[in-house]
Amino acid sequence: MAATERDEAAPRVVSAVPVPMRDLLAACAAANVISTPPRVPDREAVRSSAAGQRKAA
Q1: Residue-wise over 44-54: b if at least 16 C-beta within 10 A, else e?
Q2: Which has more confidence, 57 or 38?
């Protein structure tokens, strides 16, 4: 990269308000939950759940 290209690059934006680590981790956890598709239930778990419901009825 030429020096002129590097000098013309947009400067990094630094937040004026610091974000607490707790809020950053909570935002990451929420994004992970939202972006992860639901898993297909395990066949064994479905069988044991259905058997438990039949016993309770």
Answers
A1: eeeeeeeeeee
A2: 38
Alpha helical stretches, state H, 1-57: 3-8, 21-35, 43-56
What's the N-to-C CA distance of the chain in angstroms?
72
Give the predicted TM-score (pTM) of the model: 0.41
* Assigned token pair, 32: 């992970």
Average pLDDT, the chain: 79
12: left (phi over 0), alpha (psi -120 to 50) or beta: beta
Q: Residue 57, class by beta-carbon neighbours within 10 Å (0-12 exposed, 13-18 middle, 19+ buried)?
A: exposed
Q: What are phi and psi of 23, to 5 degrees?
A: -70, -40
